[in-house]
Write the structure tokens for this entry.
Amino acid sequence: MSAYNKMSVKDIDVSGKRVIVRVDFNVPLDDNLNITDDNRIQGAIPTISYLVNNKAKVIIMSHLGRPKGEFKEKYSLKPAAVRLSELLGKEVVLAKDVIGEDAFAKVNALQQGQIVMLENVRFHKEEEKNDPEFSKKLASMADIYVNDAFGTAHRAHASTTGIADYLPAVCGFLIEKEIAIMGKALENPKRPFVAIMGGAKVSDKIGVIKNLLDKVDTILIGGGMAYTFEKALGRNIGKSLCEEDKVELAKELMDEAKAKGVNLVLPLGGKAAKEFKNDAEMKVFKENYGDDWMGMDIDDSTIELFSQYIKTAGTIVWNGPMGVFEMPNFANGTKEIARLVAESNAVSIIGGGDSAAAVEQLGYADKITHISTGGGASLEFLEGLELPGIVALMDKKVRNTFVAGNWKMNKTPNETFDFITKLKDQVKDATTDVACGVPFVCLQKALDAAKGTNIKIAAQNMHYEENGAYTGEVSGPMLKEMGVEYVIIGHSERRQYFGETDETVNKKAHAVFKYGMKPIICVGESLVQREQGVTDDLVRYQVKIALLGLTAEQVKTTVIAYEPIWAIGTGRTATNEQANEVCAVIRDTVKNLYGQHVADALIVQYGGSVKPSNAKELFEMSDIDGGLVGGASLKVEDFTAIVKY
């Protein structure tokens, strides 16, 4: 699973919920506090409109400028609230504070489809310090957190990461688009894959270049950073910008590119000036510059060379200008590269900053596949770094949901046959995987009724020995010959009444696999254990012992069911968050034992008074992949409702 395969606002029920949304409304203002560019506000409209249209109570939060933890009128979000109101065509109420009385009063008064904007979160120094108490107060206003501020996703602040510790956290449409397009470009690019790197300093792009060397076919280097590479080749770069302490590194990067078969292409020549100003004397040099001259832009021969790679590219990522773009006389290189990228047939991604500004100014924006809204964030993304504001969000589930009924000591063989005969018609089109765990004496009737359907049959227990003097027990070969596919082992009732231990669960798991079946392994804590705060440690221990000696391939097909003993048959249910937290602990334990790919494949069920009324919210949590259902699995209509949650 990609580190950025995150749940979006579409993956969670927002109707009637208080939803707090982190946006990036850090917009430029003139001296009269009028917004001069509202692109960032417009970028958040799809997410906000979706929430309003789906009857959420919307709370907006953002920063603006650098108020350094103090209330300063010139950094108020009032202009942003006014502009957002205009764009949406509905009132956006601005609170006078962030976590003060006015903010809470306005949030508490929210009706479905209404919007409140909190004041600048950076009026509190606790924001940039990611203070837990500040995060908690923000979280206390809402039921769901949505991050749609890609431009600040590389910052671990209270409103970007801290709040996600206390609320279900998903991304908005803007972040979803950013990570989908850039993620695909890096993980599965259409080739040839060409990266264009510019800007002033090699040091700003070292990590990006190193990461891209394992992914791209060609890197075109221009801008001020090119002169450090040219000096590494022994060229005379005159007074051009050069990071002397990075010359050796530039040589190493060129050697690494050659070793990996990547074309690292430098300028053939450049426009140079005697002084760093627009109207300075100008001259074109090929490779070697005069001693008193400084490079300011790439020349026409370099544009022609670069164009050969751009025109044939399948994917292009561009970050950084080719010259001193802010000076008209030295902007041609950047303009021409912008034109070539816009006219290419490639998937084109512009990583913010001056290159994005060039594309916007020249009117090419609509011809670019994607222009990133985050300069620093997009650079870190291209560098392969994890962005804290995105990592904190819940993962999108890539596993199918699996609902298994555990009938315990209920139903006769004939009742079993009738039940499954009725059930199979109700669930035949279900996208959820379905199983029924029936008593031993009912197995044959269950298998007969389920034959040719999508319903799997599970046994409720199995001895770890193949045969022997074990009165009343059932062995693996017996179940396998019947056609049983799953075996429930380690259920709390087996542990409580029949002496099941973690060690015998492990022996049974090995036996289940030996005879070609799959185990549903139950783990969970008692009420006393939960109250003593040992749930996580206990569950980790149970999982480790249960899986001891199993291969990674076996664990991939294992099902682990988290059943809080205190919630079984009591009518009490762990909250969605409590259940998900422990299921996440199970998955994390498996990741530490077997690696991420195994943890991603593992099915983790929740069991503990699962009912039609709570199944949907439970099963949509990031680490819950269905349920091991007790009492509600004994009625066809209830079990069907859960399967079709």
About this structure: The first helix runs from residue 39 to 53.
